[in-house]
Amino acid sequence: MARTKQHFGVLVTTITQWWSPTVVRVTGDKSVRHQLKRMPDGRLECEFPERMILIANHQLYSDWLYLWWISYTARLHGFIYIILKESLKYIPVIGGGMQFYGFIFLARKWEQDKPRFRYRLSKLAAGGKQEPMWLMIFPEGTNLSDNGRKASAKYAEKTGIKDLRHLMIPRSTGLRFCLENLAGSVDWVYDCTVAYEGIPRGKFGQDYFTLSSTYFQGRPPKSVNMHFRRFAIASIPISDPTEFEAWIRQRWLEKDDLLEYYVQNGRFPEDDDKTNGLSIEGEEKIEVKQRIKVGGKERIISTMGGSSAAGNWGGPIETEVKLKAWWEALDIFVVIVTVALLANVVTKAYAVVRLVVPGSSVLDG
Predict the structure, then answer these.
(1) What is the DSSP letter of 188?
(2) What pLDDT, on the 0 to 100 scale, is given for residue 207?
(3) Which end of the chain is more exposed for a tag (fewer CB within 10 A), N or C?
């Protein structure tokens, strides 16, 4: 299963590289900087752990596609599981693949979702710390929209909590349930704050970059910006629902500040760090720019950035969604063959059922 999921992850990356090319900027706070590497050929490599829970704000339906690519940069794209709303499993090709590869779809009706959610998490926990697993969840529950933002503001006013500017108030139930059921098998929660270039203040990404416009009409975001940080699960108050709700809400207030900084400055903030802007030898870094073509359009990106071998941070990594080697694109055909074989098995099974079940049209003849 992991091997074929890797092939599907390559398919997702290839589709993005060919049909929706864009610049990606990746930054992180001090807790993760040493894990973000810019390779000599310009690719991003993330030295993230093999088992973790990944949380993120949800702006577009394509958020999870870019985050799946992040798992590809860590060579763990065959071990990712994403928690998504049920309607997404009906997306052509990709939706079917997600169902086949064990992604978790929720109807957002807790009493209905809870039993199957627990069952799926028990399977993931059974791997202990030996089997790789990235579990991705969007605590806001859905992508940011005008209706969602109004509902969030209304809830904040009703409960007397601080409202957000660029996000919706996160739901604590699903994430806490994950942490409870995966206790002892995962050590870290990684948090990604995602921002897209080209969305005016007060507007919503879904009104500018739909799946159709991004992948089929050649209008992807001008850049995708990701800021990572991490939290030790041992430090999170999982056992107390009230304290956990306050914890996740505080994380979202911090993310809201990160996004406000992005809106004002066009980039995420850098922590104060004496190694910022220094080369391995400790001399002042000279930033080098390079002209590249992304989707047929010329862009200028920095060739510096990322964590050096000496542990110094060179600033944001500017790169693009792309494969490590062109021949990996051949994995696409593995996915196509797998789908064809499955269709063949289903067709034959249906034919057998028609033969043996009384009253079928075959026996009627």
Answers:
(1) E
(2) 92
(3) C
pLDDT tens column, 148-164: 999 999 999 999 999 99
pTM, 2 dp: 0.80
| Distance in angstroms (rounded) separating the CA atoms of residues 282 and 13 | 36
Strand partners, 53: 135, 189
The DSSP-derived string for 110-160 is HHHHHHHHHHHHHHHHTTTTTS-EEEEE-TTSS---HHHHHHHHHHHHHHT
**What is residue 320's three-state secondary structure?**
strand
Burial 233-243 (b: 16+ CB within 10 A, else e): beebebeeeee
Helix (H, G, I), strand (E, B) or coil at 29: coil
104-106 and 188-196: which strand pairing?
Answer: unpaired
pLDDT digits (tens, 9 = 90+) for 233-287: 999 999 999 999 999 999 999 999 999 999 999 999 986 554 443 333 343 443 4
Task: Measure the CA–CA gap between 199 and 191, rounded to whole angstroms.
Answer: 22
